[in-house]
Amino acid sequence: MRMARRLACAAALPLLLAARIVAALEPITVGIAIGAASAITGYPSYKDIYCRFAECCPEERPLNASALKLDLEEKLFGQHLATEVILKALTGFRNNKSPKKPLTLSLHGWAGTGKNFVSQMVAENLHPKGLKSNFVHLFVSTLHFPHEQKIKLYQDQLQKWIRGNVSACASSVFIFDEMDKLHPGIIDAIKPFLDYYEQVDRVSYRKAIFIFLSNAGGDLITKTALEFWRAGKTREDIQLKDLEPVLSVGVFNNKHSGLWRSGLIDRNLIDYFIPFLPLEYRHVKMCVRAEMRARGLAIDEDIVTRVADEMTFFPKDEKIYSDKGCKTVQSRLDFH
């Protein structure tokens, strides 16, 4: 019996190798090769084998909450609110077999505080290839929607792109970077997809995830953080309720937020407004150490201190927060 199995697998091997060679080029050929291999061996299903050679949409793949928690706690510094909210929101959403709407998160804060970094971590935990996945889609406002006179065109293109990709993979992830540079009105094109509809034009969007990244509201977040600091409280004392209402109203009334008077806010379709607090000196040092570890370097505290000391801090008198967060840590470390 064992010998028969070995012979069957040996016969299937050339077909599987052929499938691997053409996987990136011609799915139909892959299907024929894999189907033949499955018929010969009588073991793995078509889908099981196909997904070894081509990326498949993980419809029922559970979120590894422990892995995401570890990533957030070990790689994201000074953002207790973002860590807590993102972990709970994603875990709850992915554990819900029948969500009523897509999960929509809006991340706010100054540059260098970790918004892009977090969106990358989220993508990697949802789809193994992360930002390189066919099911993760990144839009950059200044790149994909640069011209104000083409708003209607962008709206149509955006709807078609999202509809097509969610049709192909219900658990697609859409990330919108530089929301504060997005022309007003463009984002409202996706409002029907974020609403509480079972289907829109025979497509269900309820398992998709939308993430907005914006510098808008950074001033409001800093103002609250400073108030806590001046009152002798720690940043960890800040709760989501201290910032989320201020953020939602602030970006709704901000012409340069990408969400100015948006129906997404008016209809309460954004599930969480997540504040990213300005980073302190100690957090910058954490970023330097993390970058040194990523480069395989031994941690040299003298270099860590020198890099952190090169950063500029605000307000002018207190000098508490890094004005660029950790954004320039990589380039500054190159000089040491």
From TrEMBL:
- The UniProt record gives the binding positions of ATP as 109-116
Q: Which parts of the sequence belong to the Torsin-1A C-terminal domain?
A: 279-335
Taxonomy of origin reads:
Eukaryota, Metazoa, Chordata, Craniata, Vertebrata
* Key word Protein biosynthesis present: no
Q: Name one GO molecular function term.
A: identical protein binding
Catalytic reaction list: ATP + H2O = ADP + phosphate + H(+)
Q: Which family does it belong to?
A: Belongs to the ClpA/ClpB family. Torsin subfamily.
Which Gene3D superfamilies does the UniProt record give? P-loop containing nucleotide triphosphate hydrolases (3.40.50.300)
- In terms of superkingdom, the source organism counts as Eukaryota
Whose protein is this, by species?
Carlito syrichta
Spell out the InterPro entries in the cross-references. P-loop_NTPase, TOR1A_C, Torsin, Torsin_1/2
Which compartments is it annotated to reside in? Answer: Endoplasmic reticulum lumen; Nucleus membrane
Q: Which residues does UniProt assign to the signal peptide?
A: 1-24
- Kindly list the GO CC terms recorded for this protein: endoplasmic reticulum lumen; nuclear membrane
Keywords in alphabetical order: ATP-binding, Chaperone, Endoplasmic reticulum, Glycoprotein, Hydrolase, Membrane, Nucleotide-binding, Nucleus, Signal
Q: What is this protein called?
A: Torsin
GO biological process entries: endoplasmic reticulum organization; nuclear membrane organization; protein localization to nucleus
